[in-house]
Each structure stands twice: as C-alpha cells, then as structure tokens.
Amino acid sequence: MKLAVKSVNSELINLIENRTGFNEVIAIENFEEVKSLKKVSHLLCEGSEMENSDLLTLGQESHELNIMIYNEGMSSSFEKACITNGVIPVDTKNENEIVNFIQNKWEHKKLDHKYENVVAISGTHARSGVTQTSLGLAYELSETFQKKVIVLGLSPYSSGELANTNIEISFGELYDRFYSSIEDDATLFEQLGKVDGFHYIPSNRDLYKAAEFERGPIVNMVNYLKERCDLLILDCGSFYDSFLPITGLELAENHILVATQEHEAIEQYKAWNDQIFKRVGLDFEHTNRSLIVNKFVDQSLITVSQLESELECSFLRAIPFFPEANDQVLETDILVKGAEKKYNAAFEGIARGFTNEEGIKKKKSIFGFLKRDQ
Residue 362 domain-assigned? Predict the structure, then answer.
C-alpha cells in the first residue's frame, strides 16, 4: 500500500513510516499530485479552510482512494460533510492519535480499549426491528442468564421511547457530560434508567441535534458504560449519516444485522454500504458479524439464503412474524415479554449464543464470550 501525505509535520510522517504497514509514504504539496501518482491507495492531509472543499470534491470523485483529514476543532457540519463524501475526519493534531486512527481505520488494529463485550445491532432499513431486537436480547440475558446488560441508543432519528416506562436520561442528556472522560463518576451510573433488570438509555430525542454529535464524547460514553456491565448493546438504528451509529459500528467487536424478507432490505443496505461504510473505512470482515432475519415467514420470495448472499452476512437466527406486535408493544414495552412461544424461543436462543450455555443444537456461537456466574 502507498500513502500520500499532505502535511508539513515531518514528525508525523516519520511515525507513520515506523509504526504502520505502508510500503511507501510520499509527501505531496497539492491534491493534483495524487492524481498523477501511480498505485496510491491512501491520502492523509492536514485540514485547511482554503482547501477543505477541494478535498471533499476529491473524496466524491475518487471512490477507490481512501482519504483521511486531521485538524483540531472541526465543526460537526464539516465532519458530516466528510462522511458524506467518503473522507474520514480526525479531530486532533496529536501525532500518536493520528497514527492510532490510521492503524484502526486502515489496518484494522483495535485501539487501546477492548470492545469484546460490546455488540452493535443495526438494521438494513427503517422499521426492520432494531430497537425491539436490542431490548429483547437484553431482557433474555438479564432475566434468563442473570447478566448485567446496558442498552445504549445510538440512533440519530428514533429515540426508542417505551410506551409504559418513563426513562429520564437519554443519550442527549448524557452526551455533554462525556466531552471529557468521567470514569470515576459512580453517581452517574446510578441515575440511568432501568427496565426489567437491565439499564436502558434511549437514543437521541432532539432531531435538530442529530447532525451535531461528535465522535469523541460517544467514544468516552461507550468506554464508561462497557466497564460497568457484562454486555453493552448499542442500538444503532438503520440510518447511518451521523456519528452516533458510525462510531458504534466502528468500536463494537460484535455485530448483529437485522433484516426482513423485503427487497428494500437488500437495496437500502447496499446503498448504505457502498456510499457510507466503505467510504469511511468500516470493514465488517474484521468483526464477529451475524444476520438476524426478523418478521420471518416460510412462504416468502426472498429467502434466508438470498439475504445471506446479498448482505454478505452469516445467518444466526430467524425471529418469527408476530401479527399482534404493534398492540403487544403498547402493553408490555418489550415484545418478548408477551409474545408467543416461538418468538420467545428465538430470543432465548440468541441470548444463549452469547453465554456459551449448552443445550442448543448448533455450532458454538461466535458470540460466546460471556460466562454464566458460578
């Protein structure tokens, strides 16, 4: 791999040469040089107000070129513009932090924190059932397997409110407190809402702020919460034009993709994958990733095998179609609490896969990192 670097920081260039796996690191003075260089796969540059628009245009036009821009004090609107145009924004000028980002994003090396007890649940398209899947899994793990579980909502446009339970603190209420690490603040955890044995933090409640959230506080929040539970579930929703779901998907070492047997599931997810995920460096091949088919019916033109193939994700479990779901969720908040046996059995099976418990007649789950308490 060849990396072109547009920066006057010679120390940064030396660190990249010594700590990354790039075969060649080439210093450039302008973006036109990138177009003339052969086999340059990556571009790193320092942000400049005079040249930011040129860089975004380059990102839009050069889909095969991986681009990262760094600077301090990036605005949330510019960061979102970067994501939209396939450019990875890094809000720092610290050389070591920049190299860490390069290793994580481009060489798929994990950062200092470990996220093996973090699972990101995301959907192929709107109304695929991500929030109820997150809540159902949390309910089974806490009730059946006595695990300490936290569900953190990272959906920018759907808060995931419960019909019968008032949760005071949502993601938005926590966000401002995590601009700096507060790992020693024990009182904060005690304030989090609890539902049927697990903690639940609903997603963003203010649509106006959806584009304003930055990566740093989200990382701090995840780091704080994951140390206080057996499993942290990130409800990432089904819209990926914000740092809320993108950061969750980036950090988690375990992923569950929720799909339905609809053509929209395939087409919408492929669009997100091609236009957002690939262009910001999200590579799910380096994570534990499985497919849940929600609202499953036997007689459907779109089969589980087709979804596996089209979405490039291994099948984990089908959750059967539940005709009374809309009414039931109004009564019990969490569908699994009042659903029929087949529906409940599906969630118990998924939860069992996270614990390595015996009794399920399948291969050992890739998610089996939780141990039952002795």
Answer: no
Tokens of 285: 């091949």
Instruction: Establish if 184 belongs to a structural domain.
Output: yes
What is the CATH number for 326? Answer: 3.40.50.300
pTM: predicted TM-score of the whole model, two decimal places: 0.76
**pLDDT digit string (tens) for the chain, length 374 residues:** 899 999 989 999 999 998 888 989 999 998 888 878 888 999 999 998 888 888 888 888 887 889 999 999 888 778 878 887 888 999 889 998 898 888 878 876 655 558 889 999 999 999 999 999 999 999 999 999 999 999 999 999 999 999 999 999 999 999 988 886 665 666 888 899 999 999 999 999 999 998 889 888 999 999 999 999 999 999 999 999 988 999 999 999 899 999 999 999 999 999 999 989 888 878 787 678 999 999 999 999 999 999 999 999 999 999 999 888 889 999 999 999 988 889 999 999 999 888 865 433 333 444 555 654 43
Structure tokens at 232: 């942290």
Q: How many domains does the chain have?
A: 2
Q: Where are the beta strands (DSSP E) in the chain?
A: 2-6, 24-27, 42-46, 66-70, 87-90, 118-123, 149-153, 194-195, 198-201, 231-235, 254-259, 288-296, 314-320
In whole angstroms, give the CA distance from residue 369 to residue 354: 6
